[in-house]
Model the fold of this input.
Amino acid sequence: MRTKINALLTILLIFVTTVSCNDYLDLRPEDGIVRDEFWKTKEDIQAAVVGIYSSLLKSPPVVKVPTGGTDYTLSETLFMFGEFRADMVSPGGFVTPDQRDITTSNILSSNDLTSWAVLYRVINYCNTVIELAPGVLKTDPTLTQKQLDNYLSEALAIRAYLYFTLARTFKDAPLKLTATLSDTDNFQLASSTQNQIFEQVAKDLELAEKYAVSSYGNTAYDKGRVTVYAINAMQADLYLWMEKYPDALAAATKVTNSGRFALIPMSGSWFSRVFAQGNSSESIFEFQFSTTNLNPFYDMLFQRPEFVASQTVLEDVFGVDFADANNVDKRGDRCSLIAGTNEIYKFTGLNNSERKSLQEADTHWFVYRYADVMLLKAEALAEMGQGDEALKIIKEIRDTRGAIKLTEQVVDPTNKADVIDYILAERARELAFEGKRWFDVLRNARKNNYERKELMINMALVNAPADQQQSIMAKLQDPNSHYLPINEYDLYTNKALVQNPFYK
Amino acid sequence: MKRSLVLNRLMRLTLVVFLTLAFVNCTSEKIKEFTDQTLNVTDYLKDNDDYSMFLEMLEVTNYASFMNTYGTYTVFVPNNEAVKKYLSDVGAATVKDVPIEDLKEIVKLHILDQVVATTDFTDGKIATPSQQGQFLITGAANIAGVSSITVNKTSNITASNVIVGNGIIHVIDKVLRVADKTLAKSIEADPNLSLFTEALKATGWYDALDKPLGTATVTTTTGGTTTTTTTKIGHLSVLTQTNEVFKAAGINSLADLKAKYSHLNDPMNPADSLNLFVSYRILPKLQYLADLAVSQSIETKAPLEVISVKLAAGTILLNEETFNGVLEKGVVVNRGLSDVTASNGVIHSVDQNFFIKKRIPAPVYFDLGDQPEFRQLTSVFRKPGTSAALKKELFKDVTWDGSDALNYVCATKGSSSYQDRAWNGDIIEIFRFRTNNTQNLKFKTPVIIKGKYKIWVSYRWKGTKNPTVRTYFNGIALPRLVNFQEQATNTINERVLESQGYKSHISPFTNRFNCRLVGIVDVLTTGRHTITFESLSNPGDTAWMDVVEFRPVDMDQLYPRLESGGSGLVP
Done:
């Protein structure tokens, strides 16, 4: 009897140990795809690349800000980084205390707006494509090397642009060039210096330029996806920051010589063609908001305005002819802003007389326009001593736009500082509220070891509240104050980061 | 055999049980008694070696336990190096060698009883005085390319906004010193101000500037608890000028000064021009440059005379006016020599000689909520979503009959009550504007230059149960009544409305706020006057008032409008 039981038990034991329940215990997520099921076909790569563009427009729904603050989209963040410390934008009625503190240079590391999460989120999407897309060549025979290269150029370019923005805003930031694929990845990355980031961006853009597409065959793609001209525009901007003027000039000339872009002459429909509809012949790269993916500026600048144009913009930037009401710079009133209420109009207007409705608020975010690249070229020319060529470009833009005589400056082409000042003033008119102002002034102030630091101080004087003016001026004397601090949450999670020494 | 086996088993069981009980015992449950483990100030200082000397100072003066209690404090903690430098300055070897009274004053100077983060710092004084009574001034300075936030001009903040359980800590690299010289003695101590000192002595103002501060005590009893608030009063601000400035105006000695200005030849006489010369340079209250920069005109000790202030780029100009199309250039305030704190005031310096100017009437927009008592509540004043109620006894410039408190409301942005649309976003709220609650509400106006003015009173409309109010200026009743139940309209042309005595005082328009012309007054003297509001009805609901505008009769009564929800003017 006992041996029978023993034998039965042994058979049972052998049975259990040799038959495994491998698949039974293997749980796969029911609402997502795991990595080894993805990255198999070229459509997968395309989906991932489109995902990158989509993340430029809005954040994924499950995103939560760790500190409980507002999750601003990338375009709002780019707008704020480029404008709120500069002189063209003032706090509006619904400005948050965090935003107001930044406008008065009272920036603490606990300020939610110093979080770089939204930029790194998109960088990770780019890194994922860059790292995992080449593997598809093995599994999908219909994917050509050229097609793969084109996709890689888009991911590289967008990643480069975001790192460029990080370096301009925070000065030093960690360079993560590999995708975050598992929890075991090392997140304790130390910051790279601004110059190191610029070098990496230059490398990425060069590679992207080799792989890039010159046209996708239709306008929406050409303006909404990265083409070789968008990359050249980014290079022109980057090389000016790196003070490599011949390289900047070469990159900008590639765009101006391409024959693909032209300034549209000023008329009653100029605003609606260039801004309200977008994707015009003046555009190089725009975030493609649409009626199914509305832009965030309708709320931020119109319904509950967090920012309005400064009081001085209409008169000092665009010029007001008090004698003749018809003599106006058409880029000013009812294009960039509305006179009187100082509401920023560029992203909410339908045409020169009416605004878009909420359901139609789909104005794009303009990353690079042709006029921008022309003025970058002018800046490079001015820095290389060719002041008269630079002035010619400014004149061409002014004539096409119908700028008024009040804002015309008579400049000696050999006086570099004056030519640069004129370029800065024209950029303020042309690219008002497009997230460029702060970076333009900072780029010119820091040239040659902060030779023209007074540009920053004078800009601060315009908007500084009367009882904080002296403190703001004293703070801006320290070049480290021109950059934002690292958010305290990021310092808490990444122990390898060191805070910007100005923010004690 | 069986029996012993059973017994054995039982014994074994009992043995096992006893052994388990012996070695496994119940430890008492550790209950966490704190909901928050954040350290308070004293504990935080104990935790950090670099603040040990300041901790010693707290312990010697018996303030250590006080700084560990819950509350809202701001503490400027000097690090050890700072304290060592202070000790060598006063010639003491250790903290215990410093006289206890001095140490107490120093420690009290570093503590404020409200939480003030660096985001609330301005170029001038922190709104709350230190426990010692003197105000601390803040700013920023750039030394060798590195900018830091400064306190009292010379101490740099090395670590800011450290949040602790009972407040906030800022670490400074220099001990703050109590200003112990009076204005008169400070001015006398400066050889460059010798001529100014002589002028002070000759006109008798030296003694006024040498007087120490007085204290005002206000005792209020609410429901059994008596609270006494003491404030220091008698601060003065002085605009001095150096001997060089006098020389540039051709005045080299007291005799020259007397010859130029003293027309009655009796400088002690308040009506004498030399006396006026000095009194025109003495401003009441503690006004740092940041306070001057935000005021349009400042009262002086010269009777009926004011100085106008303009901020041009970074420079403060006094008395710069365009009069009849001609620009009268103003006097530049020397920032480097200004903001010198004395024990009873502050000293500034100007770069040019100046004298009393004839003034033309200028508009005064009197925001009723802008009272110093409300301003002191830094977490409430002009912070959306907050309000405060203060009793009559606490106000200096406001009084009324009745037992109710006066409320200050700064509504949340976008509030459905539209109360955030007022100028500066704030309004005063009167619970029941009637006898026995709040009646005969009297305000002291800001300085109004003599001339003829139209007075406009703005209020937030309510359809029912709101008062009809009569206005009195300096006790004289004004002809038109304000009916708070009259709603604003923009369907009638604004100039026609103006001729009927109505307007919208804010831009953009909202029909929730209306503004009424109450009358025309002849202001006989430049200075502060009183405006009283008497309710003629018996309303059952709350009333709100925004701004009282005094506009010169020849000025455009509609423009500029006041910015709705903001602090500017809309042309």
About this structure: Chain A has 23 helices and six strands. Chain A touches chain B through 31 residues (CB under 8 Å). Chain A has a mean pLDDT of 91.
